[in-house]
């Protein structure tokens, strides 16, 4: 049962081949058996899952249908879930039970999904390896000695290991696309504002966006359909109709103009990944696409700009964790200042503290113009590069990551080395554009992803290209040994 995609599960449930309750029990048993190797879950929600599965079966028996009705999923542990621990991967929120459901959680529950649990993640979504979690590192099912990517590493490892068909995730600088690439999944970061951020614990509010992680583009379309839409509770949510993403999958790629930026193929890119990117280009050419070299001249400034803006916003967002209102509080504080200092010092891990300090510094009087304002100007230049490129092409294609998944611990002593791994993904967040990573081959037995970027609100175009590619290639169907 565990090999089925969301689309196959929907057909099986509609044809009464099995019930949601049977499927849910089978997957919960599989998680209990295999997750100890991966550490992909922070919390399991068996009772909730079984009651949701029974309710979904009853709705189907009453004649209701729907692609997500009875579908088992899991939520990254930064989506608030009412009455259930929502830890954000941090000791700070280890004891936090959310008082309400995030909009994404509520929408998916209303569509009939079954929540199996909350997935592991980098603390406050800061990281590219899922090693900064208070609950320990997540392992990559393709090689247990390697990282699964981050910060949505738990969602990625669980889906890749066939513990469940799909999961929610979030992407501030690549945290959906990069773990998708490292674990042979398809992951989509929607346009900023397409998916509500209400109840999604904030890291960098102007960059954060929720989206689906699944094995196929077809499944990303199904899950995104349940997540997307206007939300009056999120002031940056966009009031635009949500198209039928599944209906967009089958468009022809004849004449599709694909831009390949020359800056992507610099010295930092593993040449074996460059070759797989070129192979994917050839595959899409066979399907009728036309390839054009383009330029994104300001790309080189994106990492420094991101690593000023994201920590700046984080330092502000995380000021609410003060030992008074939420989460962790130190023992026996001597006075109010001691309470703040020790609650934050003991509750936040090293990477989170590093970012708060960088962000507070960049925002401080005297440095604001030199760092924060400068970074915002670069952000506009990065966006302008994309706007110019999309006058010439329909889609931009390149590697998702410069290297395949590295060994656990390999970058722990050098945070900047880890930041540099985000070079291909963060530009989409700075510009607010949608991006997708899809499986495109293997290097040393480790999966490699190809990234597609599209103009605002063209998620359907990304899913269309990825689906057509997946109909003609088999990379996404490969399964890690032992799972
Ligand atoms: N790796 C990036 C960071 O650490 C992106 C993380 C994310 O997208 N949440 O900030």
Automatic annotation (TrEMBL):
Q: Where is the active site?
A: 76 (charge relay system), 151 (charge relay system), 175 (acyl-ester intermediate)
Gene Ontology BP annotations: translation
Q: Which GO terms describe its molecular function?
A: ATP binding; glutaminyl-tRNA synthase (glutamine-hydrolyzing) activity; transferase activity
Q: Which UniProt keywords apply?
A: ATP-binding, Ligase, Nucleotide-binding, Protein biosynthesis, Transferase
InterPro entries xrefs: Amidase (IPR000120), Amidase_CS (IPR020556), Amidase_dom (IPR023631), AS_sf (IPR036928), GatA (IPR004412)
Transferase among keywords? yes
Q: Which GO terms describe its cellular component?
A: glutamyl-tRNA(Gln) amidotransferase complex
Recorded hits in Pfam families, A to Z, give: Amidase
**For the Amidase domain, which residue ranges apply?**
22-463
What reaction is this protein's catalytic activity? Answer: L-glutamyl-tRNA(Gln) + L-glutamine + ATP + H2O = L-glutaminyl-tRNA(Gln) + L-glutamate + ADP + phosphate + H(+)
Q: What is its EC number?
A: 6.3.5.7
Q: Where are the transmembrane segments?
A: none
Concerning its family, UniProt says:
Belongs to the amidase family. GatA subfamily.
Function, as annotated: Allows the formation of correctly charged Gln-tRNA(Gln) through the transamidation of misacylated Glu-tRNA(Gln) in organisms which lack glutaminyl-tRNA synthetase. The reaction takes place in the presence of glutamine and ATP through an activated gamma-phospho-Glu-tRNA(Gln).
NCBIfam families assigned: gatA
Q: How does it assemble?
A: Heterotrimer of A, B and C subunits.
Would you tell me the protein name for this molecule? Glutamyl-tRNA(Gln) amidotransferase subunit A
Q: Per the UniProt entry, what species is this protein from, by scientific name?
A: Pseudomonas brassicacearum subsp. neoaurantiaca
Gene that this polypeptide is encoded by:
gatA
């Amino acid at each position: 049962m565990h090999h089925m995609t969301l689309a196959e599960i929907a057909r099986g449930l509609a044809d009464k081949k099995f019930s949601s309750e049977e499927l849910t029990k089978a997957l919960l048993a599989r998680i209990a058996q295999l997750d100890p190797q991966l550490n992909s879950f922070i919390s399991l929600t068996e009772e909730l899952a079984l009651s949701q599965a029974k309710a979904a079966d009853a709705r189907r028996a009453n004649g209701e249908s729907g692609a997500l009705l009875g579908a088992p999923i899991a939520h990254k542990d930064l989506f608030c879930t009412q009455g259930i621990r929502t830890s954000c991967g941090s000791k700070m929120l280890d004891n936090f039970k959310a008082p309400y459901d995030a909009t994404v959680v509520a929408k998916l529950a209303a569509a009939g999904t079954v929540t199996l649990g909350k997935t592991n993640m980098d603390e406050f979504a800061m990281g590219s390896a899922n090693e900064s979690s208070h609950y320990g590192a997540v392992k990559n099912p393709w090689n247990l000695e390697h990282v699964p990517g981050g910060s949505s590493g738990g969602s990625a490892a669980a889906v890749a290991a066939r513990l469940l068909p799909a999961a929610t995730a979030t992407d501030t600088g690549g945290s959906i696309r990069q773990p998708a690439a490292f674990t042979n999944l398809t992951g989509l970061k929607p346009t900023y504002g397409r998916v509500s951020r209400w109840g999604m614990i904030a890291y960098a509010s102007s960059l954060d966006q929720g989206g689906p992680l699944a094995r196929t583009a077809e499944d990303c379309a199904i899950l995104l359909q349940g997540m997307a839409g206007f939300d009056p509770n999120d002031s940056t949510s966009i009031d635009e109709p949500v198209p039928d993403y599944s209906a967009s999958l089958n468009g022809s790629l004849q004449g599709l103009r694909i831009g390949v930026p020359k800056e992507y193929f610099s010295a930092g890119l593993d040449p074996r990944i460059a070759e797989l990117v070129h192979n994917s280009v050839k595959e899409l050419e066979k399907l009728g696409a036309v390839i054009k070299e383009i330029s994104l001249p300001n790309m080189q400034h994106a990492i420094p700009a991101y690593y000023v803006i994201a920590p700046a916003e984080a330092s502000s967002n995380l000021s609410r964790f003060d030992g008074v209102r939420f989460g962790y509080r130190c023992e026996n504080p001597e006075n109010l200042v001691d309470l703040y200092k020790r609650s934050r010092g003991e509750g936040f891990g090293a990477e989170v503290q590093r970012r708060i300090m960088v962000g507070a510094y960049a925002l401080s009087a005297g440095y604001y113009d030199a760092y924060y304002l400068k970074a915002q100007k670069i952000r506009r230049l990065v966006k302008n590069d994309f706007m110019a490129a999309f006058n010439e092409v329909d889609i931009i294609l390149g590697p998702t990551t410069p290297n395949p998944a590295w060994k656990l611990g390999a970058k722990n002593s050098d945070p900047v080395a880890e930041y540099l791994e985000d070079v291909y993904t963060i530009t989409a967040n700075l510009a607010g554009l949608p991006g997708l990573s899809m499986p495109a081959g293997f290097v040393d037995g480790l999966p490699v992803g190809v990234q597609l970027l599209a103009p605002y609100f063209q998620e359907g175009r990304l899913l269309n290209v990825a689906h057509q590619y997946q109909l003609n290639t088999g990379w996404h169907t490969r399964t890690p040994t032992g799972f």
